[in-house]
Amino acid sequence: MSADPLSLKFAALADPTRRAILARLCEGEASVNELAEPFDISLPAVSKHLKVLEKAGLISRGRDAQWRPARLEPMALKGVAEWIEHYRRYWDQSFDRLEDYLRKVQKGKDDGERN
User: pLDDT tens, 50-82?
Assistant: First the structure.
């Protein structure tokens, strides 16, 4: 059974090297050699990272003679952003309720000190 698209994206994003590659691709397409420059890993290792990103749909690879530039697929992150947004709203609401509760507790404490 294959993983669902969101799981593939999160698995790809879990690795810091792949996140750094995506950050570099925000500047524009790049070759494997260009993407490998800042890392102390082999070209085959970078190629494996690119395959994971491509399988997750986060990048695409072109063909220009021998050059296979990688490019970011920004719309592929939309599902990730929507999933995260749902939980961000949940946590914002939870923190707002906690803040209200703490304010009431503090107000009650301040009122008790005045009596």
Answer: 999 999 999 999 876 677 899 999 899 988 999
pTM: 0.75
17-22: Cβ within 8 A, 24+ apart: 17/41, 17/49, 18/49, 18/52, 18/53, 21/46, 21/49, 21/50, 21/53, 21/59, 21/70, 22/53, 22/58, 22/59, 22/72
Domain count for the chain, please give it: 1
Range of the domain at 90: 5-114
CB atoms within 10 A of CB 50: 21
Q: What is the CATH number of the domain that holds 41?
A: 1.10.10.10
